[in-house]
Amino acid sequence: MTHELKASFAFVERNFFLTRRYWGWELAFLVYSVAGALSISLIGVEQGSPTLLLSLMIGAIFWNYLSVVFSWIAETIAVERWEGTLEYTFMAPVRRWTQLLGSCSYAIVYGLIHTAAILVVLVLFFPQLHLSQANPATAATFMALGSFSFVGIGMMAAILPLLYVERGAQMCFVLQSCLLLVSGVYYSVDILPPWMQALSHLSPATYVLDGVRQGLIEGTPVTALWGDIWPLLIMAVTFIPLGIWAFGRAERYAKRTGKLKRVG
Amino acid sequence: MTTTTTPQPNTRRPAVVSSARPSTSTVDRRIDDARTGVPALLVDHVTKRFTLGRGRPPVSAVDDVSLRLERGEIHGILGANGSGKSTLIRLICGLLTLDEGRVEIFGLDLERDEMAVKRLINRVSVDAAFFKKLSPLENLSFAARLYGLDAGTGKRDAMAILARLGIGEKRVGRPIEQMSRGMQQKVAIARALLTSPSLLLLDEPTTGLDPRSKLEVQGFIEELRTTHDATIVLTTHDLAEAERLCDRISILNDGRVVAASTPDGLKRLVAERHDQPATLEAAFMTWTGRSLDDDLEAEEDSDDED
Fold this sequence. Notes:
The structure holds 2 protein chains of 2 kinds. Chain A is an all-alpha fold. Chain A has one domain. Chain A has 10 helices and no strands. The longest helix of chain A is centred in the first third of the chain and has 34 residues, at about 50-85. Chain A is globular and about 60 Å long. By secondary structure, chain B is an alpha/beta fold. In chain B, about 40% of the residues lie in helices and about 20% in strands. In chain B, strands 6-7-8-3-9-10 form a 6-stranded mixed β-sheet, with helices on both faces. In chain B, β9 (about 250-255) and β10 form a beta hairpin. The longest helix of chain B has 17 residues, at about 210-225. The radius of gyration of chain B is 20 Å and the shape is globular. Chains A and B meet through α1, α4 and α10 of A and α2, α3, β6 and α4 of B.
């Protein structure tokens, strides 16, 4: 177990090295994310509605967090395939959950730092915000629960680049876009067509955003939001084991069909 | 099969040890292994097929291949492009599943004892696959942690091996993408050695290198034989390299082993049985099903038809 945890840290450290080397892109990505969050939030200012402003801000900030976590995990295989290191990582004496644990841990820490930077800019930009009623514990609880669910979905999405050499990364991008569309990031899911509303129930982001909004805008305690908590609990408990299991099956399939081999 | 002589990953470091002959302990261990009959690598009737499209019959990339390597041996695998050399290496690494047969490394079954086997092997492939934006030290640090070395030991060993391979302190912190192909390949070899593998799989490690880099890498492989107690499988297209480095050679053709012996044995066989010059080139051309004369005749026939 100690070896596995140490090996898990290898992925954290390597991803940190990568972030450091690509600092220019990281900065550009952060500026783009801040600009995007500000642009969306300014719609609330234009409408003269503090509630809408806060709702849009929450959408922008928490979607940024969830999408960053999802991207890091889902791309953990795509990046290795791109660099050609996938076979070497799969040859190493580490269990797959060790690799996924390291990638997920870094994704969460990275996502928190990235999101905190955006939050600071938004709070400074909109000093008129009143958060005296806000319940930060509710927001933190939903963020934590949502992280587990997104880790599970990320693990399952990471299978795609394992199975589809080129199209896998594209499929991940499409999946992330669909989650954005159906999760009510900037609007209520009630305005969606019925078939999309049905899909919104399958996205953990729907429950996270609803819970965070109720906590920060109306000050609702976690205990009053059981309707949003239990789906997230079920998703967290099922998605992560399902992700690890599915990843293992996909790895076996890739080894049987020769899909680990570097292409390009 | 007994596992009593299954080694731990090598603790001796090739970068800092240099001697002309195998150490006494190395020889003793080889004798012990020979006595107990545990080969360093046993490939037993291994077959791997791939399906290249729906409705098309599977193609055998490796077809009923058997090999047995004793500890400390360098075993060459020769074959034309597409003959199954790299597939065989991937099968031994566990990067491909076996359709038939079994592979044992120091008595451990490749599939059943997966984690233990992984600790004993490493590989250098023709393409030096790294995170190119990261430095050699950062890439090697990652590999060291995956194989259970702590950060301090990993860094110290990495620096020593890189220095032995001619990569000085000034270069270890720069991105690998700024290095020449030869330098990158040396870092790839350093990455494999860092984990002290008992079985090292070298898949065309000198392909694409300039003559100086090629000689340096070959010299280092020779040094491994004499100092590191590693068993090595080497695939190559360079027949002089195979002759210089390998104790024994297997020639693959269409996924099958068509000849196997010492380099001198192969030369003798091709001269005696096929009335060809006693060279490794003649052996290669004969057993891979084509000779230069065949190629020329085919070309002439083609010209006549035109």
